[in-house]
Amino acid sequence: MTMAGVPDAAALRGRWKWFFAIGLAFTVLGVIALGNLIATTLITTLIVGMLLLVAGVVQVFGVFASGGSAGSKILGLLLGILYVLVGFDILANPIGGAITLTIVVAIYLIAGGLLRVISAFTGAGGGHRILLLVTGVVNVLLGIWLWSGIPVSGLAIGLFVGIDLVMAGVTWMVMAWAVRGADKAAVGAA
């Protein structure tokens, strides 16, 4: 291990098979997710609902366990209750929750994309104006596509999760081959 907590090359030698297995597992899960977008969307929505529910309960207990002004405690309590209510709502109606999450993602993409486009034209992005402009336009177009296709575009959640799993798997496998190559080079140098 290095001072930064990152394993050095010696610590990675011989572990490339584990990295490859993790990558293969992620890739297989991603392909399965892409093969059944409805189930992937509903499972993802249920997980988000459970996480919101747990976060709300933790938030409510955290309000009573922490100090602070009465106003901050009331705000924290209201936020915790809101998390719990939204979590219950999503768990009670996962299809409606998927549509709601799709709307939230669409708004996020449109707003974030517009901010990137504005940053590209105002010079706030430094020397990366073209990159900001392109990613901003792509985000706005994706947001509009999601918004205009609701409720069918609710399946985009499953699509995004599947693509992300495949990409994570490929990344792990590429890293495994890189570590394997470094391992072979180290053995050859010895």
What does this structure look like?
It is a single chain. The chain is mostly helical. The chain contains 7 helices and no strands. It has helices at 9-12, 16-35, 37-65, 70-92, 94-122, 129-148, 156-189. The longest helix has 34 residues, at 156-189. The protein is globular and about 60 Å long. It starts with 8 loop residues before the first helix and ends with a helix.
**Which sequence of SSEs, written as H and E, runs from N to C?**
HHHHHHH
In terms of DSSP E residues, the strand content is: under 5%
Biggest β-sheet description: none
- In total, the number of domains comes to 1
With helices defined by DSSP (H or I, 4 residues minimum), what is the helix count? 7
Ranges where pLDDT stays below 50 over 5 or more residues in a row are: none
Estimate the global geometry from the Cα principal axes: globular
Quick check: average pLDDT?
A: 87
User: Which bin fits the share of residues in helices?
Assistant: over 70%
Please compute the radius of gyration using only Cα atoms: 22 Å
Structural class: mainly alpha
End-to-end distance: 21 Å
Overall strand count: 0
